[in-house]
Design goal:
The chain is of the alpha+beta class. It contains 24 helices and 11 strands. The strands form 3 sheets. Strands 1, 2, 3, 4 and 6 form a 5-stranded antiparallel β-sheet that branches. The chain has a 4-stranded mixed β-sheet with strand order 5-10-9-7. Strands 8-11 form a two-stranded antiparallel ribbon. A hairpin with a 5-residue loop joins strand 3 and strand 4. The model has no long low-confidence stretch (mean pLDDT 77). One of its GO terms (molecular function) is kinase activity. InterPro entries: ABC1_dom, Kinase-like_dom_sf, UbiB, UbiB_bact, UbiB_kinase. This is Ubiquinone biosynthesis regulatory protein kinase UbiB.
């Protein structure tokens, strides 16, 4: 009954915002659409479909808001106007009762907060759709932040996700663009990322990995995780204090160099992607602070690592080739990389794809960030991908989303930032480490452990190999014998065929001679 009631509520909200007309407009013929609209003439639908969709998702609740946020990154699937509107979705959710937070902590950590901590603030300092954060102090004096998952999130999410799958299935069946947009696959992608975000142990592991990757960095701080106080529903980490990166006035008042911050942000992002293949995939301004503490002044602080992206060696090589080709304006190399990777069909015309990519990218060069939109360039590239049937990889969609966040940060900090000029030396240096002499030396170093084990055994291995060459192989002897026997059988068969053919020809000749008089 709860699912039925939830479905009724969803349909009512969709109907109230006129989203049903989006589906009606795809019915064949105009008569049905005109009749349908006349039945509900009292609805005022002068607002654009994108705005109505955004407002409907906001009213439907946190899960649908997150779905809309994810959809806003899929510019390969959505019209530009709708994608731009969905990108405005804000994840602002009222906090839940602090008593429930205390119950969660007690249940999942095995003791109430007053025993676990020297001090626990019941008033949350931040609240989002899936969790909220309280400040506390450990018994050793360390100040920490306690992240607590909202109660019964798994049940609520499971119910709404099931309904989303139903809608996606209906859309693929009755909407002419449904199959092309792969609605079920989109919901599945959202389902996976959301359940990953609900496991706070996974998020804690992401913090530890990123902190280890940047242990020697002077540009990024990652909070320490206290594993003795972590579970799937509760996570305790080092308390971080800083200025939100979106508050540029406060950053300037604190004496920070915004241009340096902008270039550092680009370097941090590229380091995560190309050096570590492990990147923070939710780098919107709300998740980035700037430290003003004397010891760490001006460093970025990374928060909310529920969503991370990972790339394999193939992805890194593909991306690096494309980026370097973009910087050199070698669009043919971009086209060939997409075809060689298998993401574009093998019969794709290199010349046509090269021309399409040039049309997308050429207008943005030699211009500061304020004079072009990287998001617009990505949107055009996704339109090109649809035209040439290029497959969009899920891990690269996360990367695209993060790059849009980086663009937004860059616009706030330094509108004159030349994104390409800042990134090009880093990427060329990375390429040298991957495929140049430095890369070869590094790989030898990585394999040194194996070499140290194999080299002492090398003389014995060579001696054994030489003995095997000199020693007759029973299998080889058996194979040679079988080959000889087969050759003998083949000769016998050949002789038999010749004999049978001769006999047949003789019989035919005798028959002809016996009946010769019939021809005269």
């Amino acid at each position: 009954m709860r699912k039925v009631w939830r479905l009724i509520v969803i349909f009512y909200i969709l109907f109230r915002y006129g989203l049903d007309e989006m589906a009606v407009s795809y019915f064949p013929g105009r008569r049905f659409a005109v009749l349908y609209r006349s039945l509900f003439f009292w609805r005022r639908l002068s607002i654009s479909p994108g705005v109505r969709l955004r407002k409907a998702l906001e009213e439907l609740g946190p899960i649908f808001i997150k779905f809309g946020q994810m959809l806003s990154t899929r510019r390969d699937l959505l019209p530009t106007e709708i994608a731009d509107e969905l990108s405005k979705l804000q994840d602002r959710v009222p906090p839940f009762d602090s008593n429930l937070a205390v119950e969660q902590i007690t249940e999942y950590l095995g003791a109430p907060p007053e025993k676990l901590f020297a001090r626990f603030d019941p008033v949350p300092v931040a609240s989002a759709s899936v969790a909220q954060v309280h400040f506390a102090t450990l018994h050793n004096g360390r100040e920490v932040a306690v992240k607590v998952l909202r109660p019964e999130m798994q049940k609520r999410i499971g119910r709404d996700i099931e309904l989303m799958y139903v809608f996606a299935s209906l859309g693929e069946r009755f909407w002419r663009d449904g199959k092309r947009l792969r609605l079920t696959a989109v919901v599945h992608e959202f389902d996976k990322s959301l359940h990953d975000e609900l496991d706070l142990l996974r998020e804690a592991a992401n913090y530890s990995q990123l902190r280890r990757n940047f242990a020697e960095s002077d540009k990024l701080i990652v909070p320490e995780i206290f594993w003795d106080y972590c579970s799937t529903n509760v996570m305790v980490m080092e308390k971080m204090v800083g200025i939100p990166i979106s508050q540029t006035d406060r950053l300037v008042e604190a004496g920070l160099d915004l241009k340096k911050l902008a270039s550092n942000g680009v370097e941090i992002f590229l380091t995560q992607v190309f050096r570590d293949a492990f990147f923070h995939a939710d780098m919107h301004p709300g998740n980035i602070l700037i430290s003003v503490e004397p010891a760490t002044f001006g460093r970025y602080i990374a928060l909310d690592l529920g969503i991370v992206g990972m790339l394999d060696d193939f992805d890194k090589e593909y991306l690096s080739k494309n980026f370097v080709a973009f910087f050199r304006r070698d669009y043919r190399m971009v086209a060939q990389a997409n075809i060689e990777s298998g993401w574009a069909p093998p019969d794709t015309s290199v010349v046509e794809l090269e021309a399409a990519v040039r049309t997308c990218c050429e207008p943005m060069f030699d211009r500061p960030l304020r004079d072009f939109s990287f998001g617009l360039v990505l949107m055009r590239l996704f339109q090109t991908s649809r035209r040439f049937n290029i497959e969009i990889q899920p891990q690269l969609v996360l990367l695209q989303k993060t790059m849009l966040n980086i663009e937004g940060l860059g616009r706030q900090l330094d509108p004159d930032l030349d994104l390409w000029k800042t990134a090009k030396p880093f990427l060329e240096d990375w390429m040298d480490r991957q495929v140049g002499i430095r890369g070869l030396v590094d790989r030898f170093r990585m394999e040194a452990v194996n070499y140290s084990r194999i080299l002492p055994q090398l003389p014995c291995l060579v001696e054994e190999a030489l003995k095997n060459i000199a020693r007759p192989d029973r299998k080889t002897e058996l194979l040679d014998r079988m080959i000889l026997e087969q050759a003998s059988i083949n000769r016998r068969l050949t002789r038999f065929l010749y004999f049978a053919s001769g006999v047949l020809m003789g019989v035919l000749l005798v028959r002809i001679l016996m009946n010769w008089h019939y021809f005269f």
